[in-house]
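hey
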């Protein structure tokens, strides 16, 4: 087009390019590859689970946590999230195949499945059938697309709101931790804790190594007498004061861990002596100590 031509009236030539439709084989390949992308976090979670359970890190690292940090650059918590998410994904696909009467979802493109760990994280504490129901509701809320973790969490909160029951726990109550299906409580199953805050569906509890937010279905009441609860509170306070000491040695921490996992509301005479010795060694006030049982 020359400079003298009117740009408004100038002709523009557009070359059309015909895009061929996918063949049936290409459609199958596309679906198969899409499913592989979707399963990436699932494969990572299953691999991490095997690495952890078989302790395949033991030749180079002392703990799974150190291994994950050095090898993959993330915390053990991130690994636990991926492992838990893999369980959810497996539950969803298993139930889906059962409902459809098929063995493999890689040949079925009509099903919406999770594509990331964050989308299923809110469902890790639910039972398999509940996970399926929540996921279907979340997909529907997302207009048939893959829902975000926020959408999934909203669905769960609405279901909890409909089935809300009053929180049965009260401040100062001594409970036992039920760690089943909760990776954040791994290693704490059966440990005692003291309720420090009561929410609608959860409690904040104090354990030997800090505070945790725990759903009410992951707590078990120990039905201690009020005097026993007060005694456990004193033990908890003494442990907490010692844990604040930055110079606390590993041997002392091991003792505190043992006392924090007791299944009874008192210290034996020997345990009382050991705890008192640690308090004396680190100059911690020993006031208001519980009476030890023989």
């Amino acid at each position: 087009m020359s400079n003298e031509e009117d740009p408004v009236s100038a002709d523009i030539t557009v070359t059309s390019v015909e895009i061929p439709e996918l063949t049936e084989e290409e459609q199958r390949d596309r679906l198969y590859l899409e499913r592989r992308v979707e399963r990436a976090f699932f494969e990572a979670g299953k691999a991490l689970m095997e690495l952890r359970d078989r302790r395949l890190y033991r030749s180079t690292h002392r703990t799974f946590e150190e291994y994950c940090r050095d090898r993959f650059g993330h915390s053990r918590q991130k690994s636990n999230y991926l492992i838990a998410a893999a369980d959810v994904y497996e539950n969803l696909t298993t139930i889906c195949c059962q409902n459809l009467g098929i063995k493999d979802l890689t040949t079925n493109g009509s099903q919406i499945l999770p594509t990331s760990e964050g989308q299923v994280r809110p469902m890790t504490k639910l039972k398999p059938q509940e996970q399926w129901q929540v996921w279907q509701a979340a997909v529907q809320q997302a207009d048939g697309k893959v829902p975000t973790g926020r959408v999934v969490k909203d669905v769960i909160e609405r279901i909890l709101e409909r089935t809300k029951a009053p929180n049965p726990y009260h401040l100062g109550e001594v409970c036992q931790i039920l760690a089943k299906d909760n990776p954040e409580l791994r290693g704490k199953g059966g440990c005692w804790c003291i309720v420090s805050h009561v929410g609608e569906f959860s409690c904040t509890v104090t354990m030997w190594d800090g505070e945790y937010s725990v759903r009410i279905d992951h707590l078990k009441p120990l039905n201690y007498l009020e005097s026993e609860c007060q005694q456990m509170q004193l033990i908890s306070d003494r442990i907490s004061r010692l844990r604040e000491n930055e110079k606390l040695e590993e041997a002392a921490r091991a003792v505190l861990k043992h006392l924090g996992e007791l299944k009874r509301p008192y210290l034996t005479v020997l345990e009382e002596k050991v705890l008192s010795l640690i308090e004396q060694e680190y100059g911690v006030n020993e006031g208001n100590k519980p009476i030890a049982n023989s």
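The longest strand covers residues 192-198. The two ends are 103 Å apart (CA to CA).
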